[in-house]
Amino acid sequence: MSYRYYSKEKLSKAADDMLSFGICNNLLDSAFNILQHPFELLRNERKGYGRRQNIEEFELLASFLSTVTAIELLLKSMIAVKSWKLIFSNHKKVSRDALIKGDFRSINLENCIDIIESHHDVSIDTRIKNRVEEIRVLRNKLTHYYSDFTEDEILNYIALGLDIFIEVYRSYLKKEVYDENDRTEGFEEDLSDIHQFVLARLESAKRREGNVYQLDNDLNRECQKCWTENVVLTKSNEIKCLYCGHEIDVEEFAAYHAADNTEISTCKNCQKKTVIVRRSHKPKCILCGR
User: Of 113, 167, 197, 235, which is the most buried if we count CB atoms within 10 A?
Assistant: First the structure.
């Protein structure tokens, strides 16, 4: 029987990797726990029965500050997955004992993105960088000076913060931590009545998808999942809700929209089974537009 021996260096690295992954997940759990408060506040703002008419100023500020803190912890989680040592602001004082006791100074929000780009093979989207800086400055003003913002303005910043959180988690961190399920799944459906949040998500989606095409006016563009009217045609000829990301099978979409002025047929140009819109003039395919 043969035995494999590991050097102290390899054992130490393995222990560091395990610790880094553990710290990463602790930070991620804390981020989602803290995010629950602003998420619930926005969800309670939904239109219809039971909507609150007024929100106390302290509740608005607490929700905004929670949003920014959640983003900071999310970014730190992304850093910690590479190495727990990177969350120390003073690298000369890095030690497991200090980490266990909590007796250390952690990096700040303004340092996070620079550290991520220095140690990850990624470049954070410019829009996300600008948004993070914008809410960081606003947090400083609200906590150190005074608030001269209206309720709608604060709600807008909370919505923008939630959008940043979702984008960072889904685009950069979810695969790193091997989350089987998307922890932000359902956010879009629950907040589909919040105008500020919908606009923020649509702006992010347009940057991700690139050029998208509006479906024919005769077709119902309402998503069957989130019920917003944001179903579009992507550049890869996919029918997709730009808001919640729900993808719709072309043939299923065609069957759903078959009507007097449409028919399900194979387009002679793109060779896909789809909806052909028939008008008084030339028929038009909803996928390729020909």
Answer: 197
